[in-house]
């Protein structure tokens, strides 16, 4: 058993910096609201107290956090006021991600995040904010030896030496990093964050009076001025989103060591994520209309664990941007059990009208009212209705399903087309349902889910005979099908 160890002292700086970043907006609102029109040093009392408390708690948290391990277990003790002790068996560890943030890189440490097979998703996760590379190697060797004794590891993995891994299976070039950034659509997220920030200042900033003053100052051209400013703000947000994605996906590389997929990425904050092949529950291919126009797509893995890659739970990006013809070879190299070269069965022609009418159900009334109120020019809004019907027809054309001896694939969507591949033994549930209208047209909806809970894919308006065949396939009552 190793002696009790503490994190590198740089963890204090990283932890305090993160807390202060989260507190910045509330403290700013408190200072502005407290000062009103006259500023005084007394308005800074609350921020100074918060700053002092955060720094003291950061130091105490570091002092009280210790970890050590023996041949089979990692033990962590933490807590300033309430002491918590956790013991994590090595054989339950399902994924490890390493991150080199700005602070960690200054001292040659790494941020370690360990995902375990906890009863509740993500609850049993262990985070070591700043650990030396030598400690990481020792811990990994102990984990490897424990898994070898349990018979669940074929080859050792060493994430601490990212440059000594096997040749890459996929690498994102700088040209592809740039294209992935400009087609990511992340500008909407930046705009939403800015709008949320401005809404917090609604009681302090008189927006309505400000807009009236702009209109009066510009002699009736205030609307044009506001529109131009809004356009520039959107372009700036789009630029920020591009920079964020370029920093995130720079040096993106996928390698494989034995039964483990290792993904490394990042420019400022370098990260390595390891995923056991047997923990992959499915493969998802996403294509927005712009990337599909140039023959590109995004490939993600459904992972039975937490948010290893700072995304949503159970989702890890395997290829941020890749030519569609390269997807199948990369998937075969990483996940030999999956077959992405399958032929999809289209939906029946009688379902096309339902797809065309579905978007009109909620568009007809508001579009008609808007066209009436905005007449005569508002009449052009009615063109939205045939456009929506056309998009529905494209969604019908794109949707489909495919089954083989051991795999189910479902495809849906058009603006953002999603294709999900799931192995039979990973399926948690398969549901075939039909509404009254679907029964009249002999149609059904197929929905399949895998771990983690809530991860599912579905196709609407499948032929009811095909839905029954898929259901029997899961029950094992039919042989191989293509």
Structure report:
- It is a single chain.
- By secondary structure, the chain is of the alpha+beta class.
- Among the domains are: 10-160, Roll (PH-domain like); 175-249, no CATH class; 349-395, no CATH class.
- The protein is built from 15 helices and 20 strands.
- The protein has helices spanning 10-35, 45-64, 102-107, 133-150, 174-182, 187-200, 207-217, 222-249, 289-293, 324-334, 352-357, 364-373, 384-398, 436-440, 464-475; strands at residues 66-69, 73-78, 84-89, 93-100, 109-116, 126-132, 170-171, 253-257, 260-265, 270-276, 280-288, 296-303, 315-323, 345-346, 400-403, 407-412, 416-423, 429-433, 443-450, 455-463.
- A hairpin with a 3-residue loop joins strand 16 (407-412) and strand 17 (416-423).
- Helix 5 (174-182) packs antiparallel against helix 8 (222-249) and helix 6 crosses helix 8.
- It starts with 9 loop residues before the first helix and ends in a 7-residue tail after the last helix.
- Keywords: Membrane, Transmembrane, Transmembrane helix.
- InterPro entries: UCP026631, YdbS-like_PH.
- It comes from Geobacillus jurassicus.
- It holds the Pfam family bPH_2.
């Amino acid at each position: 058993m190793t002696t009790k160890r503490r994190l590198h002292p740089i963890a204090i700086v990283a932890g305090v910096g993160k807390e202060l970043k989260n507190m910045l907006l509330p403290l700013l609102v408190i200072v502005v609201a407290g000062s009103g029109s006259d500023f005084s040093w007394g308005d800074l009392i609350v921020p100074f107290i918060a700053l002092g408390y955060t720094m003291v708690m950061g130091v105490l948290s570091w002092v009280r956090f210790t970890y050590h391990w023996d041949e089979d277990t990692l033990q962590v003790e933490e807590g300033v006021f309430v002491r918590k002790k956790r013991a994590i068996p090595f054989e339950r560890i399902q994924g490890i991600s390493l991150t080199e943030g700005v602070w960690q890189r200054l001292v040659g440490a790494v941020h370690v995040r360990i995902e375990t097979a906890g009863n509740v998703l993500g609850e049993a996760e262990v985070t070591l904010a700043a650990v030396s590379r030598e400690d990481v190697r020792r811990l990994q060797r102990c984990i490897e030896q424990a898994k070898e004794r349990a018979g669940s590891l074929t080859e050792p993995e060493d994430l601490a030496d990212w440059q000594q891994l096997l040749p890459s299976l996929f690498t994102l070039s700088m040209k592809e990093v740039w294209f992935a950034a400009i087609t990511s659509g992340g500008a909407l997220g930046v705009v939403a964050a800015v709008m949320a920030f401005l809404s917090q200042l609604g009681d302090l900033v008189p927006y309505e009076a400000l807009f009236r003053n702009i209109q009066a100052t510009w002699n009736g051209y205030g609307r044009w001025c506001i529109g131009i400013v809004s356009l520039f703000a959107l372009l700036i947000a789009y630029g920020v989103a591009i920079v964020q994605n370029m920093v995130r996906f720079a040096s993106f590389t996928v390698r494989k060591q034995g039964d483990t997929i290792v993904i490394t990425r990042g420019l400022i904050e370098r990260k390595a994520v390891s995923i056991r092949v047997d923990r992959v529950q499915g493969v998802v291919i996403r294509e927005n209309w712009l990337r599909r126009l140039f023959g590109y797509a995004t490939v993600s893995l459904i992972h039975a664990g937490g948010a290893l890659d700072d995304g949503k739970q159970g989702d890890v990006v395997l290829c941020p941007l890749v030519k569609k013809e390269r997807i199948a070879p990369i998937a075969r190299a990483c996940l030999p059990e999956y077959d992405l070269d399958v032929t999809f069965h289209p939906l029946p022609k009688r379902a096309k009208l339902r797809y065309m009418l579905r978007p009109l159900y909620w568009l007809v009334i508001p579009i008609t009212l808007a066209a009436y109120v905005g007449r005569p020019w508002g009449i052009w809004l009615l063109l939205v209705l045939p456009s929506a019907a056309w998009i529905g027809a494209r969604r019908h054309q794109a949707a489909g399903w495919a089954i083989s001896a051991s795999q189910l694939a479902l495809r849906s969507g058009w603006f953002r087309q999603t294709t999900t591949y799931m192995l039979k033994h990973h399926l948690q549930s398969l549901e075939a349902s039909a509404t009254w209208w679907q029964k009249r047209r002999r149609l059904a909806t197929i929905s399949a889910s895998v771990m983690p809970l809530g991860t599912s894919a579905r196709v609407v308006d499948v032929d009811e005979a095909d839905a029954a065949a898929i259901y029997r396939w899961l029950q094992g009552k039919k042989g191989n099908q293509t």
